[in-house]
Design brief:
By secondary structure, the chain is of the alpha/beta class. Helix content is about 45%, strand content about 20%. The protein has two domains: about 1-165, Rossmann fold, CATH 3.40.50; about 170-200 and about 230-355, Dehydroquinate synthase-like - alpha domain (Dehydroquinate synthase-like, alpha domain). The structure holds nicotinamide-adenine-dinucleotide, ligand LNCXM5UN and zinc ion. It holds the Pfam family DHQ_synthase.
Amino acid sequence: MVCVAVKAEQPYEVRIGKGVRDQVDALVAGAARAAIIHQPVLSDRAESLALHLKEKGTQTVTIEVPPGEPAKTGQVLQDCWTRLAEAGMTRSDVVIGLGGGAATDLAGFVAATWLRGVGYISIPTTVLAMVDAAVGGKTGINIEAGKNLVGAFHEPRGVLCDLELLIGLPRAEVVSGLAEAIKCGFIADPRILDLVEQDPDEATDVTSVRFAEIVRRAVAVKAQVVSGDLREATSSADTVGREALNYGHTLGHAIEAHQHFTWRHGEAVSIGMVFAAEVASRTSGLPRTVVERHRKVLASVDLPIAYNAGDWDALRATMSLDKKARGTALRLVGLRDVGRVTIIDSPAEEVLRQAWATLDPH
Ligand SMILES: NC(=O)c1ccc[n+]([C@@H]2O[C@H](COP(=O)([O-])OP(=O)(O)OC[C@H]3O[C@@H](n4cnc5c(N)ncnc54)[C@H](O)[C@@H]3O)[C@@H](O)[C@H]2O)c1
Ligand SMILES: O=C(O)C(=O)C[C@@H](O)[C@H](O)[C@H](O)COP(=O)(O)O
Ligand SMILES: [Zn+2]
């Protein structure tokens, strides 16, 4: 098993291995009640975890939420609060999030808001949630106007990644998670790019050694970046903190909103990274070879690299609600080279349009 430490007010570990869900006991210790918020596909596992905890003396309630983005809504949040009230959850009790990133984002936000904050344990069950969503304490929900516009920072007590849970995960979901791993490759660890490029098929095989190394490396990047800038508070053009993890997300999130949250997050981020690279090649000296490397490595695992379903002006307006924007200035994460992140402050509208035009598949 691999343990990756995250520095926070209360430091915690991301544990990656097989059977790590058995380790939940130590994290629940001291809580009289646990609420397990899970996606429908995990209902059997949620029930067996609940039974296990009951046998150890912890009262449990299981709360099933819709699969995917429909879980990240005000209505579902409110339903969860109602269930916690019915269960009599107190400040010494814990919420457990079991599922993909949509479920862990929601469950973390439930924990952040219930009684102004109770303990939270994350058990991610998708690639994307393991390498990204479950780590770092960003929690929240979407509103129609945009992605994750309502949320809080609330760090988990621990993150348990059981790679065996990924067996049976649809390939499209595996690949969506790889988009975030590839992002980590471009911003910090080029070895991840090598691992995908050398054998894209094996990279998408969740039972392979190659895949396990990609996951470990991506988690290490996420943990290191988050540990250095927990609240996304420090960034300048030369020293970029947690905002680096938002590479590809300014356009990516706008696409998700315009597609009414029906797209996979990683697919939208994939297009967003190509866009950001195209902008960076015009503003920050990113070599064209690196821009083309984006297209090649993303396409090698069947991630989308083109987009023609959008009205630019509408997408551009949504991008203004990106959380990195300050005042009227759009701020984009860019690269000077692989592993050299920069902030592109107030890019010229013409440059954005040019980068947008390169996404046209025709
Ligand atoms: N908080 C963060 O730092 C952060 C980081 C990255 C992404 N996110 C968020 O994460 C979300 C995307 O997460 P995701 O890609 O995991 O999507 P998801 O949670 O929607 O899960 C994808 C699908 O896989 C199913 N699923 C989950 N586990 C499964 C399993 N073991 N086997 C089979 N099916 C399974 C789910 O029911 C769902 O239908 C987005 O909302 C995104 O904004 C948050
Ligand atoms: O952890 C972070 O910080 C990230 O930006 C990781 C992203 O992959 C993730 O999608 C995050 O939820 C986006 O954050 P947001 O602040 O733009 O909503
Ligand atoms: Zn993301």
